[in-house]
Amino acid sequence: MEIDLSEYMGAYIDGARENLDMMDKKLLELEQNPSNIEAVGEIFRAAHTLKGMSATMGFEKIAHLTHEMENLLDKLRNNQLAVTPPVIDLIFETFDILRTLVDDSINQTESTVDLSEISGKLSAMANGQVPAAAAPAAVQAPPPVANASRNPAAAATASNANISEFGLSDFELSGLHEAKDSGKHVILLKVSLVADCLLKGPRVFMVMRAIEECQAEIAKSLPDAKDLENEKFDRSFKMILISAQSSKDVKEAIEGISEIETVETTELSSADFSEGPAPAPISTPQPVYTPPAPSAPPVAAAPPPPPQPVAVAPAQPAYSPQTATPVSVPTAPAQPAIAQPTPPPPQAVQQQAAEESEEKEEKEVIGVTQLITFVLAGETYALEIQQVETIINLTNITRVPKAPSHIDGVINLRGEIIPVINTRRRLKLGEIEKSPSNQIIILNFEEEKVKVGFLVDSVKEVKNLPETSIEPPTRVSESVDIEYLRGVGKIDNNIIILLNAHRIVFDNPKEE
Question: Taken in order 76, 82, 83, 88, is the CA torsion positive or negative?
């Protein structure tokens, strides 16, 4: 299943124009209301998508400029920089150049656009070279506290070490104070995954979904959202949350996710990000080192006791090596040279049988399949987790002319063009309108060197299912082709339908 990029030029043109229109619309909204952070986020996402599409198609100038634009927008949407009139003017200037470059890529023309000047402006602005007077009143620092400096550097120094490592800006510190003043909870969260976690990306996705369900938002994370999404972290990550619910509620919601080893939450007060004693660290306790006891001097081993004579009644005369002549031995009833083993008592036989039974059961449990479960038309379906590369929220899907009916279109994921299968349509389960709760499971078929997305109603969780519990596929509905099923399993009295991903992707659809 090779992807010919020339076939996707039409999709690129449609996607590029759509993202430019989105940026244009949101820029106008931002100009009217500079505090509209949601508009900044929409512009960032449009620029990010356009960058990936352009890089894939080989349009390097567009990819370079959108990358520089992203750096500035990322700091704006994370409240590391204020949205000021000079910032908005610069984004408009960048957008005009960007539209010219996109027109060049579509019309196969070459404009004499020098990117060095605009790139320098974007880089300087991203580094905070903005006139202080231009900052809106909404981001002014709160009034000074007695005996404490509100300078961002001083505030970070006074904070707990786990807070200072976040590198909170003055704007972010102000936002935390405003959250506390409005009665919300500011929570320091640390999540650690199990050592052998197969897919860290899906776990991060599930943690973020649990945070959202707790009516909480992420003020800052370590590492940042991009690195978490790309699994660029070891086993743990930290976040500062602003939540309507307590730290206990947040902790309980995250602890229910599989392959989470520990969840630690600390309720922060205003003093924790201004001045005062630092809260207790939440790092995992390390074992205390105990020096080994001094070893005793070696004791000379006692000589072995002399061998005791054992009366043996041989059937043949004993042989003496010194004389090489038989030695007379009193005749005794003939006995075997080696005594027959005594049969074990009944209790030992039962214990041995029980141990062998346990070993047999352990060998049977070794064959466990790990599944990612999801919902389709009210039923629980599953795919083997070894094939799953990541899970993303529903994003813009670009239609592809003359594509098979079950292909919704293509998406751009970090510069890769990936086709998306409408799983409901493929299984003939009846279609519904897409909603924000829909997700796309990205599968990687290594042998065919192909990545494909499965559009599903919503992802549930990761489950372990013993191979012995998987039964042959049966017809789950009149419409679903049994060839698209791998089997049916049962976990906690719930039926799980295992899909045959390879057939769904590579089998030609049957004629209606």
Answer: negative
